[in-house]
Amino acid sequence: MSTKPYVDLPRAEWSALRERTPLPLTADEVERLRGLGDVIDLDEVRDIYLPLSRLLNLYVGATHGLRNALNTFLGDVGSRGGAQRGTPFIIGVAGSVAVGKSTVSRLLKELLSRWPEHPRVELVTTDGFLLPKAELHKRGLMSRKGFPESYDRRALTRFVADVKAGKDEVTAPVYSHLIYDIVPGERLTVHRPDILIVEGLNVLQPALPGKDGRTRLGVADYFDFSVYVDARTDDIERWYLSRFRKLRETAFQDPRSYFHPYTKVSEEEALEYGRNTWRTINKPNLQQNIAPTRGRATLQLHKGPDHTVERLSLRKL
Question: Residues 19-71: pLDDT tens digits?
Fold first, then answer.
């Protein structure tokens, strides 16, 4: 008998688990959801993400059943404190820069919202909880942007806790990749969703002990299900540099872009900046902080060199 905590499934076996789940997205919709540099297509959606949406739908239903069972068990005792009403099902999506976790998150949002049991699905990225650029400069953390210490982790955990508690309205800061900073005065509002997807580099990290030495709750403690998007480090580096090159030809051309100066130098000079950023920030963050949390995920998606998912690892219950 295997002692591994995961069931490993090759792509073909996983794909068969979708049963008769219909494909609710068109090729145009998939193209709209696809991140820059990602090669996802309808086959990938059908083989990987349809089965995942079916599994998540089963998880949501089981959670509702467990809540009803608990309310039945508590009976009059529970009614005095107010029987539990439904609270949002929360999914965490983690992985490196450029691994495709944003595309995964957007796809899950669209697919899950098509199930009649939970039409209200919201997606929040942890970018909004990065410390403002001025604060990062003040703390000497600009070269550590994306590392755990560059986030307002207390605010992020409080946000997810409030959503999980069933508050009718919870707000989060908004981050702009154009200006590479938090947008002053702008907030994203979440209105009691059926499902909340939280996407970010370090969302699976356990909480740090408080100053008093006591264990605290981290954002991952509120997740009902979590996904880690995995790939070889060399492949991610190649995808990162390819994306940087494409951004230099597109989004960076906007004069308001923080990275606009890299359109004014040679391509080789710009790419050397990208390589240096990978070597000094993104790769160390992946190796030191992100990859070590892989074993905390409910499901691991293992990508091959062409960005497609080759196999999956699902945690046993």
Answer: 777 777 777 888 787 765 667 888 898 999 999 999 999 999 999 888 888 88
Q: What is the 3-state secondary structure (H, E, C) of the chain?
A: CCCCCEEEEEHHHHHHHHCCCCCCCCHHHHHHHCCCCCCCCHHHHHHHHHHHHHHHHHHHHHHHHHHHHHHHHHHHHHHHHCCCCCCCEEEEEEECCCCCHHHHHHHHHHHHHCCCCCCCEEEEEHHHHECCHHHHHHHCCHHHECEHHHECHHHHHHHHHHHHCCCCCEEEEEEECCCCEEEEEEEEEECCCCEEEEECCCCCCCCCCCCCCCCCCCHHHHCCEEEEEECCHHHHHHHHHHHHHHHHHCHHHCCCCCCHHHHCCCHHHHHHHHHHHHHHHHHHHHHHHHHHHHHHCCEEEEECCCCCEEEEEEECC
- Is the pTM higher than 0.85? The answer reads yes
Note whether 37 and 242 are within 8 A (CB): yes
CA-CA distance, 171 to 186, in Å (whole number)? 10
Residue 18 has phi, psi (to 5 degrees) of: -75, -15
Q: What length is written for the chain?
A: 317
* Residue written as token pair 């509120």: 222
Residues 193, 117: contact at Cβ < 8 Å? no
Do the Cβ atoms of 93 and 108 come closer than 8 Å?
yes
Distance between CA atoms of 87 and 165, rounded to whole angstroms? 6
Q: How far apart are alpha carbons 138 and 195 in whole angstroms?
A: 37
For the chain, the distance separating the N- and C-terminal CA atoms, rounded to the nearest angstrom, is: 15
Determine the Cα–Cα distance for residues 85 and 18; give it in Å rounded to an integer: 30
